[in-house]
Structures are given as structure tokens and as C-alpha cells.
Design goal:
Blueprint: H1 2-40, E1 43-48, H2 62-66, E2 71-74, H3 85-96, E3 106-110, H4 117-142, E4 147-153, H5 156-161, H6 163-166, E5 176-182, H7 188-191, E6 199-206, H8 211-214, H9 218-221, E7 243-247, H10 259-272
Length: about 280
């Protein structure tokens, strides 16, 4: 009788111990696998330019400098356009931090650049579809989804924010892991989208002397405006946890895509990036 009791207790302890061991290993394994998957995911950086209309400026060579190829294209599409601003942006980011911005993972999104809310939404719609197409291509080739870092200048930021509006009509969904807004005109129509879950971490770098950022009369241009709120664009967004805003000092609007600022940008991101994203998940393929 005593032997049977001892045997039963031992059997229970064995089963209990094995269950705990199994559960512990079960919970550890997905975490490790998740980290491995993150390390395998390529980080795609997409630059979205701001307002421009070079067609109306008759200066010789001006159109070539400001020319953009419509849609989402790898920076290699600009390799022969030596004095083009988009080519210089790609080279500037790569030279500033080749590990964070390898050329093979850099893309440029070109749109009309017209100072028009309707055109910006059209651009957002096209950008969304292009990011889905690129995501599917990478999934087919590598078996993992890419991490997306979108860097925008001026109203390119509002194009990016409108991704949250156009996604409602899309069957397939995307996530923007890092949204970097440079001198974005803060407008009532789009500022609410900073709270959308599709944007994981956001950065907004601005200058206190940048008049171009705040001079756009949003009420006069936006047909959906209810004529309430500020007439002109604002300098900063409402504060929230996943939005990092930083006054980077007195520079002009066009300086945000100049060589000097592009050299600073990787350091600004590294200095302000949340701890969980300072891990090596943001690396190239």
C-alpha cells in the first residue's frame, strides 16, 4: 500500500514537472523565433518629397534638378541624373550612414508635388498600392515582410499621413514601422492620423524659423475644411507617446534635404529612437 502511494506521488510529480518544463520551453521558443524573424526582415526606406512645381519655373536646367519619376522606384532609377535632388538625397543618406541607409534598400516616391489636398490624397493612394506591391515581392523572394521606414519632407508628410485614410478602402494592410516627418505643415485634416495604429513610431523634426512650413493656408485650400481652427498650418502636432518631436535649430525649409542636414539625420534618429527599436531589427537585407 505504501509503495503504491509513493509510486503515485512520484508519477504525479513527474507529470507536473514535465508539464511545467514543456510550457516554459513552449513560451520561450516563439520569443526566440520572433527575434530571428525580425532580424531577417529587410528595412526598406522610402523618401517622399514635398510640394514642387518645376514646370512653371522657366529657368534652364531647373526641371532636371527637381525632376521626379512618378511612383515608387528604387534609387538606381536616378543613377544617371547627376544633379537631381532625389539622387543627391539618396547619396546623402547613404554617405551619412551606409549601415542604416544602404543603397539597395532605398526608394524614392515621386508624385505631382502640387499644392493641393486632393493631389496629396491621390498620391497617398498610389503610395499605398506601391508599398503593398513591394511587400508582396519581398515576401515572395525572402519569405518575410519588410520593415518600412518612410522619410518625408514638407507636404510629403501629409501624403504619408493620408495612408491612414486611404487604407480603409484597401483589402491588404501595411504597417509603417518608422515615419520620419521633416518640416511637415501640421494641418487639421491630417494631424489626427498620427494616432492611427498603422504608424508604429513617428518623428517630427522642425525648425523655429521655417516660415514655409507654416505659411500654407489650410482653410482656403482644403474643400473638406469646416472653416474652424487656424487659418495657416501649424508648427507641431499634439503630443502623444509614439510621436517624438524635436526642434533641430534655425535652418530653412529647403535645408532639410540638403547634404548638411542629411548627414545629421541618422544621428538624430539614433539619439531619439525608443530602446526597443535600437535593437538591430532595423538593418538591411
Amino acid at each position: 500500500m505504501i509503495k503504491q502511494i509513493i509510486f503515485s506521488v512520484a508519477a504525479c510529480l513527474t507529470v507536473f514537472g514535465s508539464e511545467c518544463s514543456y510550457q516554459a520551453s513552449y513560451h520561450r521558443k516563439p520569443a526566440k523565433q520572433e527575434v530571428q524573424n525580425a532580424l531577417q526582415r529587410p528595412t526598406i526606406t522610402v523618401w517622399v518629397h514635398g510640394t514642387r512645381n518645376s514646370q512653371r519655373i522657366p529657368l534652364p536646367g531647373f526641371k532636371k534638378v527637381w525632376k521626379t519619376i512618378p511612383g515608387l522606384h528604387h534609387t538606381s532609377a536616378y543613377k544617371n541624373m547627376w544633379f537631381n535632388n532625389m539622387s543627391r538625397v539618396a547619396k546623402g543618406l547613404n554617405q551619412a550612414d551606409a549601415k542604416q541607409f544602404p543603397l539597395e534598400s532605398l526608394y524614392i516616391f515621386g508624385w505631382s508635388g502640387l499644392l493641393n489636398p486632393t493631389k496629396r490624397k491621390e498620391a497617398a493612394n498610389r503610395l499605398y498600392d506601391s508599398l503593398i506591391d513591394l511587400q508582396e515581392t519581398i515576401e515572395t523572394e525572402k519569405g518575410v515582410k519588410p520593415l518600412y521606414r518612410v522619410i518625408t519632407h514638407s507636404h510629403g508628410g501629409n501624403v504619408a499621413l493620408l495612408l491612414a485614410e486611404v487604407k480603409k478602402d484597401k483589402k491588404k494592410k501595411i504597417k509603417i514601422d518608422e515615419l520620419v516627418l521633416l518640416a511637415c505643415p501640421v494641418q487639421k485634416r491630417t494631424s489626427c492620423y498620427t494616432k492611427n495604429a498603422m504608424f508604429k513610431t513617428m518623428y517630427h523634426f522642425y525648425s523655429p524659423i521655417d516660415l514655409t512650413q507654416v505659411i500654407d493656408p489650410q482653410i482656403l485650400q482644403d474643400p473638406l475644411s469646416d472653416m474652424e481652427g487656424p487659418v495657416f498650418s501649424e508648427r507641431t502636432f499634439p503630443e502623444q507617446k509614439n510621436l517624438i518631436q524635436l526642434d533641430i535649430g534655425p535652418i530653412m525649409h529647403v535645408s532639410f534635404f540638403g547634404k548638411r542636414f542629411l548627414k545629421r539625420l541618422p544621428k538624430l534618429l539614433n539619439a531619439t529612437r525608443p530602446k526597443e527599436q535600437k535593437q538591430s531589427i532595423f538593418r538591411s537585407a
